[in-house]
Amino acid sequence: MTEHTQSNENGVEIALNHRFIELPEGKKAGEVVGERHEMVLLIEVAKSNPNGDPDTGNMPRLQPDTLKGLMTDVCLKRKIRNFFSLYNPDGSCLGETPQPGNAIFIRENAILEKLMKSPEIEELAKEIFEKELKQKPESWDAKKKRATSKGKKQQQESPLADSAETPEEEAGPADEFKRRAYRDALCRQYYDLRAFGGVTSTEGPLKGSFYGQIRGPIQFGFAESLDRILQLDFSITRCASTKEKKQQGEGEGDSESDGNRTMGRKHLVDYGIYRCNIYFSPAFAAKTGFTYYDLDNFLLALKHMFTDDKAAARTGMRVVGLIDFQHSTALGNEHAHKLFERVKVQRADVGEDGKTVKEFPQSMADYCGEAPEGTVREKDQGCEGKELVKALKIVWEIPACQK
Questions:
Q1: What is the mean pLDDT of residues 270-283?
Q2: d(CA 346, CA 368)
Q3: Please, which residues bridge with residue 131 across strands?
Q4: Could you tell me if 278 and 325 are in contact, meaning their C-beta atoms sit under 8 angstroms apart?
Q5: DSSP letters along 290-359, please?
Q6: Residue at 83 is within a domain
Q7: Of 59, 74, 22, nearest to 276 (Cα)?
Q8: Same domain membership, residue 341 and residue 192
Q9: Which one of 198, 272, 325, 382 is least enclosed by Cβ atoms within 10 Å?
Q10: Is 177 inside a domain boundary?
């Protein structure tokens, strides 16, 4: 068994499927990530609508003062969720049911209360409650028993009281452990809760509980285009009707909505490169149980986040840059903004006057850049140096600048 593998409590071997990250010395794939990470994601958009705004008729999101394009963090996280809804962590196609620990909580048409109250979650929560939190099995239903005994006592003291009234359940010492067990069970079952967190305190077993406010270790910033974008707006038509109508004396082009013709619009971005900064906190990874195995799979999903996201308005989107800065401590060994500044992408079509030749970029050839790889910061105390921050260049398709 190598350093990239580890057996879990069931004897099943856990391994880094893709090895996008390097395990620190003495760490195993199934252990919780203990070091800080920062990532830079570069997305190429060509003749596509990366993130439509419903308040503006699904036009591409725009920064009003700079006219740069935007993609929300919610949009980017949706791509990751969609990837794990289609593929297993090893890259194979997903079958009827996801592998344990890789299900998606926030998915289309899901009823979250049913997911939280499912027998699988309750069984896993009970197991955590008894084996890991060291609570007695009879304490699991202690709250219900107290409420029942209180109701009987009230009925004996006041037989004329309304029997339909249900006394409020009192919280006992074991209730906090029960809620914690439910939170841990949800995080172990659902990858997106383990990675991004979520609010599970509105309904279900964690209603009103502090443990229902799950904060994940991975946080996305908004993706913003490097330059102003050129928005394209097209009119489209549909030649079929939604229901049967009588057409008397109407020509094909007499009306925009009459007959079998319906008008619509399509919005695209001509070209742009969007940049997003991603932050990883080991402190919150310890809360949700996010492991090196999970982080390795997350980087795979980032790399292929647009592989199966194709649509008529998103055919020209792909990841052209992905850099992971791996620290050696939980607090980090360098400020995040200093690491982000090391990833440089700029316009290549700059004239002698210092201005760009083209008002709007048209292709990758209009850009150039550089990104670090290997040791970024090293500590030297008169002996062999120790790597404090290491850059992993997972994807890089930006042309180098001509010196």
A1: 98
A2: 6
A3: none
A4: no
A5: -BHHHHHHHHHHHHTTTTT---TT-SSEEEEEEEEEEESSSS-SS-HHHHHTTSEEEES-B-TTSSBSSS
A6: no
A7: 74
A8: no
A9: 382
A10: yes
- Give the tokens for residue 190: 């659902």
Query: What does the DSSP assignment read for 74-89?
Result: HHHHHHHHHHHTTB-T
Tens digits of per-residue pLDDT, 60-88? 999 999 999 999 999 999 999 999 999 99
pLDDT digits (tens, 9 = 90+) for 189-210: 999 999 999 999 888 899 888 8
Return the pLDDT at 357.
87
Which tokens in the block code for residue 88?
A: 């297993």
Does 277 share its domain with 386?
Answer: yes
- 165, part of any domain: no
- Residues 343, 233 share a domain: yes
More confident residue, 237 or 144: 237
Domain containing 143 equals 94-155+173-215
Q: pLDDT value at position 402? A: 86
Mean pLDDT over all residues of the chain?
86
The pLDDT score that the predictor gives to residue 352 is 79
Residues 50 and 106 in one domain: no
- Check whether residue 389 and residue 281 sit in a common domain: yes
Q: Report pLDDT for 303.
A: 97
Per DSSP, 32 falls in state B
- In angstroms, the Cα distances linking 41 to 56, 68, 197, 268, 392 are 26, 17, 20, 21, 12
Query: What domain count does the chain have?
Result: 2
